[in-house]
């Protein structure tokens, strides 16, 4: 190898060798990486926990509002079923319940031709003892678990007797064996409801307020017992609306529209279903939109 080439190669090797052992030092003022201390990590975790605690209630409220909107949609569809029923029955509304041999079928089952099948076995009782469950989603309230009136079995919304929605029975259709005791002629026909836009037809139902008749939720009593008659529950307790949607309840009116109301807006004297007295304002319940009318 020529002397000049050897010298150049030897110089290159010495240079690279020297570079290999030169420590790399950060530039003055440059940031350096370091591990988090335990205290810093705990502070970050605490901040995340605080943010989560602030965010979760808002998310829960948003979910509850979404469920309320879904429930309103259910009630509008059920109200449409009532409208179609009356069209096919000379303007007559269905009774709240009727007795077939050995069975008690309820108003929801009368709407099956217009809302699609309601329960698994049409024509048979739908209550917790029967096992005949609701199979139509529009008869199920997505917030039924928020009701303070529940069954020990946890199946409150699965059956028509204990289900989500109640029918304004005193105005539209009492039990057939009691109809003769009401001054109004039953079945009620549409022309008899003078103010359909101010008359609650169906709504979120709490069930029997004293629970003496279990969760008797397919009948719905307004703030005043019209005609001085007994409430919708066989046990004798009032069956009010249920403010399960963030302190409010949903109702569909006889003209088909649906609203979200507080109990006091609907005429009750309390916001708590367990405390209803039967002496409230019947304006939205009697078919006339008139607070003074308590009998027909």
Q: What are the salient characteristics of this protein?
A:
7 strands, five-stranded mixed sheet, alpha+beta, 296 residues
Walkthrough of the structure:
By secondary structure, the protein is an alpha+beta fold. It has one domain (63-275). It has helices at residues 3-20, 38-88, 107-110, 112-115, 169-172, and strands at 97-100, 103-106, 165-168, 200-204, 219-220, 249-253, 258-261. The strands form two sheets. Strands 5-3-4-6-7 form a five-stranded mixed beta sheet. Strands 1-2 form a two-stranded antiparallel sheet. The protein is elongated.
The shape, in one word, is elongated
How many structural domains in the coordinates?
Answer: 1
Radius of gyration: 34 Å
Number of strands: 7
Please trace the helix and strand order, writing H or E for each element: HHEEHHEHEEEE
Helix content: 25-40%
Biggest sheet: strand arrangement: 5-3-4-6-7
Query: Which regions contain 5 or more consecutive residues with pLDDT less than 50?
Result: none
How many angstroms separate the termini?
125 Å
Mean pLDDT: 86
- Assembly status: single chain
Tally of DSSP helical segments: 5
Proportion of residues in β-strands: 5-15%
Most strands sheet: 5 strands, mixed
Q: What structural category characterises the helix and strand content?
A: alpha+beta
């Amino acid at each position: 190898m020529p002397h000049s080439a050897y010298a150049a190669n030897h110089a290159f090797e010495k240079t690279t060798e020297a570079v290999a052992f030169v420590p790399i030092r950060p530039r003055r003022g440059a940031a350096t990486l370091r591990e988090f201390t335990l205290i810093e990590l705990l502070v970050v975790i605490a901040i995340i926990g605080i943010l989560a605690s602030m965010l979760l209630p808002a998310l829960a409220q948003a979910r509850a509002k979404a469920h309320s909107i879904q429930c309103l949609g259910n009630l509008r569809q059920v109200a449409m079923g009532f409208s179609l029923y009356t069209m096919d029955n000379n303007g007559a509304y269905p009774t709240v319940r009727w007795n077939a041999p050995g069975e008690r079928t309820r108003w929801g089952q009368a709407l099956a031709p217009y809302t699609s099948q309601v329960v698994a076995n049409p024509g048979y009782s739908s209550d917790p003892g029967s096992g005949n469950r609701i199979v139509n989603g529009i008869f199920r309230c997505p917030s039924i678990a928020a009701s303070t009136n529940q069954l020990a079995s946890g199946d409150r919304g699965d059956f028509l007797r204990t289900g989500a929605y109640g029918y304004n029975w005193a105005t539209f259709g009492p039990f057939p064996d009691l109809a003769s005791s009401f001054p109004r002629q039953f079945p009620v026909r549409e022309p008899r409801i003078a103010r359909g836009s101010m008359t609650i037809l169906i709504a979120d139902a709490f069930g029997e307020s004293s629970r003496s008749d279990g969760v008797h939720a397919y009948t719905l009593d307004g703030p005043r017992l019209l005609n001085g008659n007994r409430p919708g529950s066989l046990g004798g307790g009032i069956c009010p609306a249920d403010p399960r949607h963030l302190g409010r309840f949903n109702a569909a009116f006889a003209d088909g529209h649906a609203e979200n109301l507080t109990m006091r807006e609907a005429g009750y004297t309390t916001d708590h279903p367990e405390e209803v007295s039967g002496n409230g304002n019947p304006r939205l319940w009697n078919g006339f939109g008139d607070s003074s009318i308590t009998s027909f």
